[in-house]
Design brief:
heterodimer, A: 274 residues, mainly alpha, 13 helices, B: 317 residues, 14 helices, 2 strands
Chain lengths: 274, 317
């Protein structure tokens, strides 16, 4: 033991305080969401008669069914394609001979710190020209492109660590590059691919800027974009706003709690590498 | 790199082997060079069309006066001149820099404090619960964090309720609506979002430090402060670099939290470059100026992040 008892206790106290501070906003929202409609809630006050029905009202008001469907469609459009083409590119750059690989990789690195605000204006006009404004494609297509720097960087980092002998052995066996990729490399890359999938799901689900700029109709947006519209519409009805916000959070929270081990691993690795 | 290493031994084998199979071998590698490109192409294509092209267009727009519909007029660097001389725009850029203190320095400092005292989050059930809870703000949309905190910081919110309970009712106010407190209040929301992430990253880094280093420091008679400066800080250099990079980008490129909690108000007190780009381009139809601000923002992020990367990654063994 190299920490004194007092230090350990103070450390614990700090950690618990941190946990309380993290949880309080959620608890406060819940207490507001359970107050009777039309009242003005106060800080943190457990209602004598919790109005669980507010959640049903919010479900209807927010059109949750349509929102869920829209977010799922966007995730389905973004995540599989992004993961596949990023894995292919990572394999190409990390394992195959690509003339000019250094330049291409540098080009991708350029985008790693790019704020989305820097490209959102031209994207708007580009989507307008393509006739895709106000459709989910206006979110899906740019997001795939915007994720490439991180995703390619991530997958390349994995593939450069795979010994080349493995590829050579497969080649001696006479398998084609595609077979080598699909049958040998992808199964080995499964942990890296899983983490990447989780991060992309989360970032897509929570994407806000592209949703509010490129799509007006809240039922064609991501969850976060829809929440923005919900706040605009019900901002004055605090009870319903809190109920709706919690409701919109629930799917993410459920997925997070189920896969929390993988999520935390992915988030830690993601920020360390990114 | 890898491909060069891979091809070198093949070449040597070729010389020793009989001519025919050698040529077959070489041509297979040559084909691999071509196919390599095929694997990179789809990703590169999406990146080029939806990132590089818009990026070039942003640069181009920034040199024009354009309302988004009519004919654009070439103005050279005038838009950049405006960005660097207009007092409102300078204030807006300044706001983003102030947010770095809250989004970045506070979470990293508090995270270090906790990390140096906890050293490792207990494994097992308690550790899992702690990690899960501390990661919650990272998982929810920033918009939700903005809504939750708008409520907490409102006049009837929890923050004022606590202040009144401890007899500080005098300072209670609508924190996000007050001219003096709005920007720090937005900063607090960002600090809340990023605190858990920084703490966990730093504690994880902490658990990798060799305990012998601390024993050695204690034997040398180092107090907690010396120990922190001599052992903890240098060992966590890489983790601190990661935290600073992530949080500084979050501060400079902030949009979601501000849009939801204050819409940039009161006045311009909490307007940040991201929000101003959105407003200039889509409400005020000053696409050229918005693009110039976007370029400046992009360069500002690089100017902050690259030195950190160099300092914290460069000489690490």
């Amino acid at each position: 033991m190299n920490l004194s008892r007092r230090e350990q206790v103070t450390g614990r106290v700090f950690l618990i305080a941190l946990i309380l501070v993290t949880l309080l906003p959620f608890v406060s929202m819940l207490s507001a969401a359970l107050q009777p409609r039309g009242t003005v809630p106060n800080g943190l006050e457990w209602p004598s008669d919790p109005q669980w029905g507010n959640f049903a009202d919010a479900f209807t008001a927010a059109n949750m069914g349509a929102l869920l469907r829209s977010s799922l469609l966007i995730v389905a459009g973004v995540v599989p394609v992004s993961v596949l083409i990023a894995t292919m590119a990572g394999f190409g750059l990390g394992q195959l001979r690509v003339p000019g690989a250094r330049l291409v990789f540098g080009l991708f690195l350029l985008g790693l710190t790019l704020p989305f605000e820097a490209v959102v204006t031209p994207l708007y006009y580009q989507m307008q020209d393509l006739g895709l404004l106000n459709t989910r494609w206006a979110i899906i297509l740019p997001l795939i492109g915007l994720y490439m720097p991180f995703a390619v960087f991530w997958m390349r980092a994995h593939f450069t660590n795979v010994p080349v002998e493995l590829s050579e052995a497969a080649r001696v066996d006479g398998s084609s590059t595609w077979q080598l990729f699909w049958r040998v490399q992808v199964p080995l890359a499964r942990p890296a691919i899983a983490s990447l999938t989780i991060l992309m799901f989360l970032w897509t689900w929570n994407q806000f800027l592209l949703a509010i700029v490129l799509v007006d109709d809240a039922t064609k947006r991501t969850m976060a974009g829809a929440l923005g519209a919900f706040q605009g519409q019900w901002g004055t009805d605090l009870v319903l706003l809190c109920a709706g916000s919690l409701l919109i959070l629930t799917p993410t929270l459920i997925v997070f709690l189920i896969f929390q081990r993988q999520f935390i691993k992915a988030l830690i690795q993601g920020s360390v590498k990114g | 790199m890898t491909s060069a290493l891979g091809s070198a031994p093949t070449g040597r084998d070729d010389r020793r082997a009989r001519p025919t199979p050698a040529r077959a071998h070489r041509s297979r590698w040559a084909r691999a060079a071509g196919t390599g490109w095929l694997y990179v192409l789809p990703a590169l294509l999406m990146y080029a069309v939806f990132v590089l092209r818009p990026l070039v267009l942003t640069l181009q727009y920034s040199l024009y006066d354009w309302n988004g519909i009519g004919v654009a007029r070439w103005v050279g660097l005038d838009n950049y001149l405006t960005v660097f001389t207009d007092s409102d725009l300078l204030k807006i850029i300044g706001n983003a820099v102030v947010l770095i203190v809250f989004f970045s320095f506070i979470p990293v400092a508090l995270g270090l404090l906790v990390a140096s005292m906890v050293r490792r989050i207990t494994t097992g059930a308690f550790g899992t619960v702690v990690r899960t809870i501390l990661f919650l703000p990272q998982v929810i949309p920033l918009v939700a964090a903005g809504i939750a905190w708008s409520w907490l910081l409102s006049s009837n919110g929890l923050v004022n309720q606590v202040l009144r309970a401890v007899g500080l009712g005098g300072v209670a106010r609508a924190w996000l609506g007050d001219f003096d407190t709005a920007l720090p209040a937005v900063g607090v929301i960002g600090a809340w979002v990023l605190l858990g992430l920084c703490t966990i990253l730093l504690v994880t880094g902490m658990s990798k430090i060799d305990p012998a280093l601390y024993e050695a420091a204690r034997l040398d008679g180092a107090g907690p402060v010396r120990e922190f400066l001599a052992v903890t800080l240098p060992s966590l250099r890489q983790e601190i670099g990661v935290c600073l990079t992530v949080t500084i980008i979050a501060a400079l490129a902030s949009f979601d939290i501000v849009y939801i909690s204050t819409s940039g108000g009161p006045g311009l007190q909490t307007t940040v470059p991201g929000l101003e780009i959105y407003r200039l381009a889509f409400s005020q139809r000053q696409v050229g100026l918005a693009s110039a601000l976007a370029v400046v923002l992009m360069l500002l992020v690089l100017a902050c992040v690259l030195p950190i990367q160099r300092l914290t990654r460069g000489e690490k063994p």
